Inverse folding.
């Protein structure tokens, strides 16, 4: 066992406490990682506040980990001490179902093991990246390209892959009109990916305050939805909408902006059900879909794509004792655009 410092919440909505947790002894195919940075995803808030239900406490959130390998198990072949690596939203899957075999471990039929708030296949509660070290099977570790600094790379491990994967799945590219709804941690990366893939990109944000930055990141158009007349102007415009918003929206209003056969893909995960008129779909053969992070192979592809195209999150690096305040600021949309915890401050 390896003892490591961590930030944990003892019960739902409680403030963070500095604590000590244990990481398992290295198995033959395990890697010990010295976590240098961990991004704060809005999912960490949904989970630590137990908004989705199923919260297991004490909880150590964090699934945007970047760091350096310090030790490898006897059967590890892909990594060596000193390698710069990342770990995202999940740390194990069955490895034998059709989805694991096709590289989409997140949809594992036995149930993927999340980096935190999951019981692993031995029944032990998983603890995430708000900690100094983690032990992970080598199959669930990705390599961080040299061109990406470790702090900047960390948000790509969740926010990056969660937006890259659906853009690829729905064939976003030249000639496609794509709307990104919500310019937060996920949204500001989605803008960069959709632009790099060659699409015409529109940002739909609540206010005008992020307009300049959206255009710098590659948006072609920007609308503030606080003015509800924009929906009439945008009628039947988009092939795809990627909704990254953490709260429920007026789904019918957004559907009205899709062309025939257009799709609204939800990655934002509000805890309450959405509602919409079926006629918003029927009359233009539209679809509503969802997407969960992305597989390990695609995560590596996304990191390499980011390095190649100069895609990087805009981050604010914070100290361990600032995490409660960061949660509150995220809830006020007061973050440009991702908080990243410097683990050396733990
Ligand atoms: P975030 O940084 O808080 O960004 C969300 C953005 O949504 C905000 O910046 C804001 O953008 C907009 N927004 C917030 N409240 C709104 C409201 N009431 N009405 C309209 N717009 C609102 O969060 P994030 O880390 O990007 O995560 C976003 C969501 O994705 C969360 O629900 C998270 O759990 C989920 N998620 C899902 C997956 C998956 O696999 N599907 C993975 C990661 C995260 P503007 O200021 O531009 O309006
Ligand atoms: Zn996340």
């Amino acid at each position: 066992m390896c003892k490591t410092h961590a930030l944990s919440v003892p019960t739902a909505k409680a403030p963070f406490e500095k604590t000590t947790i244990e990481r398992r002894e290295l198995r033959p195919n395990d890697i010990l990682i010295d976590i240098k940075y961990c991004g704060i995803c809005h999912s960490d808030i949904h989970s630590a506040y137990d908004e989705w239900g199923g919260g297991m406490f004490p909880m150590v959130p964090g699934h945007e980990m970047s760091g350096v390998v310090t030790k490898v198990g006897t059967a590890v072949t892909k990594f060596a001490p000193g390698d710069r690596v990342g770990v995202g939203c999940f740390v194990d899957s069955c490895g034998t179902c059709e989805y694991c075999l096709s590289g989409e471990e997140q949809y594992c039929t036995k149930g993927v093991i999340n980096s935190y708030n999951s019981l692993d296949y031995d029944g032990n509660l998983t603890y995430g990246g708000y900690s100094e070290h983690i032990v992970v099977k080598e199959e669930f570790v990705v390599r961080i390209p040299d061109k990406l600094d470790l702090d900047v790379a960390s948000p790509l491990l969740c926010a990056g892959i969660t937006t890259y994967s659906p853009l690829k799945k729905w064939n976003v590219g030249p000639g496609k009109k794509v709307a990104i709804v919500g310019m937060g941690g996920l949204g500001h990366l989605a803008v960069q990916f959709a632009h790099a893939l060659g699409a015409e990109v529109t940002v739909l944000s609540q206010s005008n305050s992020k307009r300049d930055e959206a255009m710098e990141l590659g948006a072609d158009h920007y609308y503030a939805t606080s003015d509800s007349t924009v929906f009439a102007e945008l009628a039947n415009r988009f092939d795809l909408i990627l909704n990254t918003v953490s709260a429920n929206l007026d789904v019918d209003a957004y559907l009205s902006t899709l062309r025939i056969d257009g799709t609204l893909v939800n990655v934002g995960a509000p805890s309450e059900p959405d509602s919409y008129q079926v006629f918003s779909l029927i009359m233009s053969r539209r679809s509503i879909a969802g997407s969960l992070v992305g597989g390990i192979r695609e995560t590596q592809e996304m990191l390499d794509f980011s390095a190649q195209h100069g895609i990087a999150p805009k981050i604010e690096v914070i100290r361990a004792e600032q995490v409660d305040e960061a949660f509150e600021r995220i809830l006020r949309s007061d973050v440009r655009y991702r908080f990243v915890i410097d683990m050396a401050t733990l």
The mean pLDDT is 98. The pocket of zinc ion (ligand 2) is lined by residues 41, 43, 63, 158 (CB under 6 Å).
